[in-house]
Write a structure and sequence with these properties.
With 261 residues, this protein is mostly helical. Helix content is 81%, strand content 0%. The protein contains ten helices and no strands. Helix 2 crosses helix 3, helix 4 packs parallel to helix 6 and helix 6 packs across helix 8. The longest helix is centred in the last third of the chain and has 26 residues. The protein starts with a helix and ends with a helix.
Length: 261
């Protein structure tokens, strides 16, 4: 029994490493991996518990990745502040609605959204972005709008929202994907904590599982950030990796979701 318990703890820890690596590499994918890993691999029975727990773990792991990107000067702080502040309110509102939807259907809707985002990312993968892009009075309303909309979706689906924030930052400012990845982690953390607080108040967080995901994620984030810097010379490759991860997880979630409907 002890051996099985230890193996299960190791499984949870390694799942956290994978989530953290993805966060550091692409600034997103943390929750889109964390939620299915918790449900289908770790065996969390209630999807809402998986969503709430992953939101907390991803929010904290995002801070680890953010520290790495900040040291590498790939974070656009003004853009991050505007985007995150507008999205926090949206995350609270979205979380309130998300908890009223059946967990299995929520995961299926989540997967369909992921496919749409992946397609948009692939269509724009040859856009290298503008190195000097920043937030100014001309694009600030656009950044605010994307922040609010992303926050709503983040809260509704119980995710950090990095896979939505990165393309949102690129679309609203034109910044390169490496800068969007680093900048997105501010909003990922803010949205994650907002969503986790809402789910925590409803009793939807597994604290032991969250701790193991956070520990594993901290280790994975360090390696993911270093890999992102090595790949930064080709935004095409980094964007393609981003989209492929989204497609693989989405297809698996749809397959599982359809079987259980």
């Amino acid at each position: 029994m002890l051996t099985l318990f230890s193996a299960h703890l190791l499984l949870e820890l390694m799942s956290g490493v994978l989530v953290g690596f993805t966060l550091g590499l692409i600034g997103g994918g943390g929750s889109i991996l964390a939620v299915p890993l918790m449900v289908y691999l770790v065996g969390v029975k209630n999807p809402h518990v998986a969503i709430g727990t992953s939101a907390l773990a991803v929010a904290i792991n995002a801070l680890v990745g953010l520290a790495q990107h900040a040291r590498n000067h790939t974070v656009k702080w003004r853009c991050a502040g505007i985007f995150a502040s507008c999205g926090i309110a949206g995350a609270f509102i979205g979380a309130a609605f998300g908890k009223t939807v059946d967990g299995k259907k929520l995961l299926l809707f989540f997967a369909l959204l992921m496919i749409g985002v992946g397609i948009l990312m692939l269509r724009g993968r040859h856009n290298v972005g503008c190195q000097g892009a920043s937030c100014n009075r001309h694009n600030a309303p656009k950044v605010m709008g994307y922040g609010l909309g992303t926050g709503l979706l983040s809260g509704f689906f119980g995710i950090g929202g990095g896979f939505l924030i990165v393309p949102g930052l690129i679309a609203s400012t034109g910044m390169p994907i490496l800068n969007a990845v680093g900048t997105s982690l501010v909003a990922v953390s803010a949205f994650g904590f907002s969503t986790a607080l809402s789910y925590m108040l409803s009793g939807y967080i597994d604290w032991q599982l969250a701790a193991l995901f956070i520990l594993g994620g901290a280790l994975g984030s360090l390696f993911g950030t270093r890999t992102a810097r090595r790949m930064s010379g080709s935004s095409n490759h980094l964007t393609t990796v981003f989209a492929c991860i989204i497609f693989i997880v989405a297809i698996y979630m749809i397959w599982q979701g359809v079987q259980k409907l």
